[in-house]
Specification:
- The complex is a heterotrimer of chains A (about 300), B (about 300) and C (about 260).
- With about 300 residues, chain A is mainly α.
- Chain A is globular, with a radius of gyration of 19 Å.
- In chain A, α2 runs parallel beside α4, α2 crosses α8 and α9 crosses α10.
- Chain C is built from ten helices and ten strands.
- In chain C, the strands form two sheets. In chain C, strands 6-7-8-3-9-10 form a six-stranded mixed β-sheet, sandwiched between helices. In chain C, strands 2-1-4-5 form a four-stranded antiparallel β-sheet, covered by helices on one side.
Amino acid sequence: MNLVSYLGPLLQNAGVFIILALGLNLINGIAGQFSLGHAGFWAVGAYVGASYGVFFAPAFLPDFVNLLISNVLAIIAASIAGILVGVPCLRLRGDYLAIATLGFGEIIRIIINNLDVVGGPRGFTNIPHWSNLFWIYLWVVICVVMLANLLRGTHGRAIISIREDEIAAAAMGVNTTKYKTLAFVIGAGMAGLAGSLFAHAQQFIHPSSFSFMWSVIILLMIILGGMGSMTGAIVGAVFLTFLPEFLRLFGETVSEWRMVIYSLLLIFLMLLRPQGIFGKHEFNLKRLWPVKTGDAK
Amino acid sequence: MSDQVAYFFQDLGQYLINGIAQGSIYALVALGYTMVYGIIRLINFAHGEFYMVGAFVGLFLIQAHLPFIIALPCAMLGSGLLAVTVERLVYRPIRKAGKIQALITALGVSLLLQYLGQNLLGADPRPFPDALENKTYMMGPLMISKIQLIIIVTTVILMGALRYLVMYTKIGKAMRATSYNLEAAELMGIDTNKIISFTFFVGAALAGAAGVLVGMYYNTVEPMMGMIPGLKAFVAAVLGGIGVIPGAVLGGLVLGVAENLVIGFWVSTYRDAIAFAILIIILLIRPAGLLGRNTREKV
Amino acid sequence: MNVVLKADALTMRFGGLLAVDKFSMEVAPTDLLGVIGPNGAGKTTVFNMLTGMYIPTEGRVSLLNEDVTDLSPHQITQRGMSRTFQNIRLFKDLTVLDNIRLAGHFRLKYRLLNSILRTKAFKQEEENLITEARELLKIFSLEKKETFLARNLPYGEQRRLEIARALAIHPKVLLLDEPAAGMNPNETKELTALIRWVRDHFQIAIVLIEHDMALVMNVCERIYVLDHGVEIARGTPAQIQSNPAVIEAYLGAST
């Protein structure tokens, strides 16, 4: 098999998962709001983007313009879904928030399953093939730069302060509800973007592509890399995209045990290294000349 | 009374019966959720898998021509022992690490059991052999099947036993004390680790019983069967007030009845969404649940 | 009299428990007041009502002549009142400098887009914020530790950082919840001088809750005494020291 045709789809998926993991990392790792419904926003973006492609896209526009329109519509739709879910749910804390977002994710999937125009349980077919490695990775770069800049400004610090201590953050004049929602909406919007890129790469989507299991896998990506670290989210996304292929080298039997391996990985990470590979740190050239943080060496 | 109204009430009665049978199963599973949450504040995602394991143990025993009356307690024992093992190996070490870590771990255990089941037992649903001759009884215009009766009777017996255990025995008293305040219970000389193990055992045994009953009710058993009912039972526990034992029963029944009414009068394809919609509404309006009490974080 | 903060008959009930009963207080612009009382007297509950963490069951709070009773904590902070916490609530995994910068958050005017696009407005405002934060750190002798994570500071420095952070709000009223808790006598002495200096330098009102009698008697000009949620005395340190009800409450509480 030709290496390019083998690696191409894998790299596409890796890019999509990087965007998903970065978004979930903003919500879970950076704002400290534990969401388990990320696949729901991914689904919203995928179905909205695909619907534009199948039903509305004017043929006279060049493909990349149509792709960008699809991306933007997906971002808007998923952000709106993010507001609808976030505003009521973010009043809840910790495990309750996790369950409520899980519930919303499932509701979104069940609704899609019941929408006949987009194929319902048969899946949505004939989606135009617009996205490719170039556009996916262009968006990856945009997301990384945007998030990095966001985090270095006062809005980013406000989001982080909520994770650190919500009560203290409010006492410092941070409108915690506003910034929790902001993080949630940006994260959801990114998942929507990933959905639209995914739909236009796969050309076929199915409600079960966005099941709860995928929310857990995206969660595993950011836990593996280190919750709160963008570098970690990227490494985790790439690693878990390639792991199934790697397992395939050991034959079909090992490959079938993929989900067993994932769940063991999740359990052992929690027991042995809950901070993941990178902790909350970022890969940073400056760290080669460390500053004093007072940490014991 | 016009015919239409009569039909309406007949349908309503029938949906209520179906709902109570379904709700009894949710209630049995919800009890374990609520007991474990009450004692260590952990949403044990894997609880649905204890139910699945109970169903499989029941399946194998009934396939081996053992009677229901023996298969049921054996399945309860099987689920209970699995839960104790999981608690000892995984949850106990993670308990001190924090709520979210424990939650993620529980999620991992849940997926592990699901996919282990799928790889070891096969993903295809298996038919559940008829353990009993199924009959349908008429109560006026309403039908109730023998299985439904067994479900309801078994549930009532098990709940009575649980109530006796928790309220009138020494270990039940220790369970209540530990749930009220773990550190204080420890200081009073209660071996809280043992109590937590025991709580897991009892909760999982009830889920195992529910698994056998549901296998008989729907005639099918598969490794993924625990996931959705597990989540729904959690919803039932939250609905009733998590940590409150009568709340889990109430929540289970309300959820079962609500689902059957929606399926009956409206559409069946949204069945699985109902529980989550109820969950979100209850969390927003009354997060402590129907029978729970509100608490707030200390500043 | 010019009043910056006024508590009017604040009452807090938790279920059947009456935690604070009709507490009233008036604070003038450069007052230095103390609220004392045995454990469980309701002092922290008073602070929580003043800062919007609890909504009082009855009574009103007004800050700079505005009724703030029903506002949320961040809104009250933004209107000019900040606080510290009994059990230090720093952002432990952020640097010392970032802890201070967060307090400047609501005063910054640049928008989200400015920071994503790194515009001039963003750079200028961030620069000013850092300059100001460094000045504050110098006052609290923390300037050498600006890159340290807050959790790595020794206890006394964490207490100082929390006060510095509260001052970075630019408050008109500063509430200190047991600032000397866990400090040794030497540190407490330094703190006493620091509190007075802060009041004089920034010209703000300070209200503090304290267990350490020496500190309260030394630093506060007026004192309110709470017992079981009820005010049992108010007055100057000298008046309080000789008040029989206060002596009774403290001796009674210690048995």
